[in-house]
Amino acid sequence: MNKVAIRLIVFFALIAVILPATVFSAEYPTKALTYIICFNPGGESDITARIQEPVLKKYFGQDVVVTYKIGGGGSVGWSELIRSKPDGYTIAGDNLPHIILQPLERGKAGYNTLDLKQIYMFESTPDLLVVRQDSPYKTLKDFIDYAKKNPPGIVTVGGSGSSTANDLGTTMLNKAAGIKLTYIPFGGSGSAVPALLGGHVTALMTYSTMGVQYKGKFRSLAIASEERMAVLADVPTFKELGYDVVEGAYRGVAAPPGTPDDIVKKLADVFDKVMKDPAVQKKMDENGFKTEYMGPEASLKLVKKKMVEYEAIMKELGRIK
Amino acid sequence: MFDYILLGLHNLFTIQNLLLVLAGTVSGMIVGALPGLTATMAVALLVPFTYTMSPIAGLVTLGAIYMGCIYGGAFSAILINTPGTPSSIGTTFDGYPMAKQGRGEEAIVAATIGSAIGGLFGVVCLIFLSPPLADIALKFGPAEYFWVGVFGITIISSLSEGAFLKGITGAAFGILVSTIGIAPIGGDVRFTFGSPAMQGGVELIVMLIGLFCIPELLNLVLQGEARKEQIEYKRTKGVLWNTTRRIFSMPGNLLRSSIIGTVVGILPGAGGNIANLVAYNEAKRASKTPEKFGTGIIDGVVATETANNAVVGGGMIPLVTLGIPGAPPDAIIYGVLMLQGLRPGPELFAERADITYTFMLAVGLAAIVMVPVGLYGGRLMSRFVATLSTRYLVPGIAILTMVGSYAIRNNYLDVILMLLFGVIGFGLRRLGFAAPPIVLGLILGPLMETGLVQTLLTGQRFTSPWFALVVNPISWILIAMSIFSFLWPYFGSILKWLKGIGHSREQAG
Amino acid sequence: MSASFRDRLGSIIMLVFVAILWGQRNYTTPFGGIFPDRIMIIMTVFVIITMILSFTRFRVMTAADEKEKDEGGKRWTDMGVVIAILLLWVLLLRYAGFALLGVAGFATISWYISGNRKDWRMVVKAVALGFAITFLIVFIFGYLLKVPLPQGDIFG
User: Do C48 and C103 sit in the same domain of this protein?
Assistant: First the structure.
């Protein structure tokens, strides 16, 4: 090898070694934000992140890198998060009720609910009970009557995952209506759809987003929110129909424990601006998401409130001791 | 419909879009060739770049990357016995032996032509046959998915040629490893040895690199300079023309593999990863010289590569008709579609036909573009790797394994697991447990378990929940196929045995 | 290693594996065990059959046997050293990061198996190439594609 080549190689080599070490301490943020998504691509968390991403870059000031850490219904990503550096450059999307139910039901989920430092809760998707457009059940009453008449196990309800809002919503409906629906967990909201379309399950307890997306193919029987959603205006709430079932998933972002409060506040402000951006709002509404605007304190309050609620419900339903 | 196709062509053939297809295909090929980087990752990584592009341009790029990536996996499968993407596992069976015999160029030509044909076939089905094919996909419920998994496992019986017991044990080993982590149904935390880090289980890519790449790397070290004598790179003329002629003289293989790829692609969640193996198995069965499979026969490479590229088109069928991704990269494309406000369904084909048809045609174009790029670059690469000295090849591969196994989940543990399984895999291979059945078990384990448990849940209305497994007609077909596929390698002996009985009856009575 | 020895050793190793997993059984829901338990039982059955057959004339390994003979290879110490280097490499990855270990690992392996270790020119070539390759990968993956590479605790 001739001298020039060697010099060139040494030159590049120096750069290769120096580069990783050049992080000058300056105003936050100085480098890219890693936004971890703990669920499959194409799912609700992913779509939300993709809606946020371009606007997020603008308000954050640096690049945003979306990465996936899938597994365990989110627990893999969250266990990783709590062990990441609390420097404000790594955040992960987090979901209620998952982050509460998983440690509760599993014992050792790899993280504790309160380890996740809440930054912002930006959306919620209430549970939605749907059947196929051509099914014989036109209203919730039809469905519940059918379930009452038949032995347990006949009526199957698919949903996304175990220990999720879908799962809990089904159990709550069972209790409120005195019926026994069999819940069939699927890998994600998307995987449950072909099962319903192909007639392999009777109904789905899924999220509002699916009801919007498959409007032509699904008939929504009831929604588990306090009030009707604008985009699904003709779907009655469980409450109106006399069943006290209010359940759904909240989604937000969280940081590793120990992240300085002022950095958390800065991130919260960024997300606040993102969620109030008209383009983002429009897409969220169109897709069936209910936008929320909860900053760090409000989110933490919500989590704590839900922790108490869920523990009581789970004990009552016999799912934990 | 033909108006739409013309419209799509018109949109596609702009300078910008053509360049994007070229750039996308080439990038996809490079990423695919690197073990550990999957098509899903490639597509996911490039999504942010598409935000600044128009919807058509963005989708065109992603589609081209996807197609190129699946093809690219063949390169490392052939040259270093490591599938660049899991969909090229089967290509190592015959591709690598061919490379060791100095016929690497031939293998790459075969992979290129096969991929192009398969890719085109899948896209044609996508354009013309989406609605009916999507309906078939819907008929597959949890029970059917379980039997699809079982069918996949029976392929082992033919892959193992005589070492069946070890093959099935290897598959069981793979299945058990796949259960490590959180159960797909119920969320049990299983076999994590108390460590929360193991909750994520063992990632397929990590095991793939470990089981295929590391033993090969260690073998290279073992052979040392002796390897040089083995590979005499034969610079033969007319390889391209002869190989192409040979491939087209076997249209049956091409057609059958394309169909298999498309059909497997349509089943959401079945995973295109098994398409190449099923196609390999079928090609072996239909061949007049099945014993040559595994020693370096072109038919093997053609079968696997044709099938895995057909999955690209096939997987998009449920995506555009129902909004259900047929394969993981489709899920990402689905996200992009949603972002652009493009709802999957009939409206995608009618109101937004301009975008949809352009996108589908772009994927098809990518399949064609792959040919000149692959033939030129691929053959250069094969010459390069074949003549590269071990002392550079070994550390080069080693460094790539580090990147690949880390990149999938940004997890240091994965890199350690990769090496661990690599050394274990080396040992197991010496004891007679080959890698493919183990990997097959790892891929099919979750599929089988999810299908089984879901079926048992739905089966509560029967006296025994297990009955639900045999209720559907499609289940019966799959069960029959599984039994058939399992017994196939033994047909010869079974027939002889039956004839033997007949003879002794004649003699006796 | 004779074929029957291989069968027996393989069977024992697989049995140990199943035993370890069986000991780790700790299912909290009714679903968790349905599948793995049955697979473990099936696997044990097959392994026992293999074990029994290894004492008879039946040879469980056929074609794979031949392939091993062809591949040959005698440099066991070299292989052992390479495994050790790789092990160090992956274990230190978290602390030293990819860039540093890429250069070091590449150079070390390349130099070690090169056959002429005494030659200082070989050392230079190995290190230089290590730098070049590592830089290329860091550039393409780290910067162009933004694939995260192991940073290493030292570099933060």
Answer: no
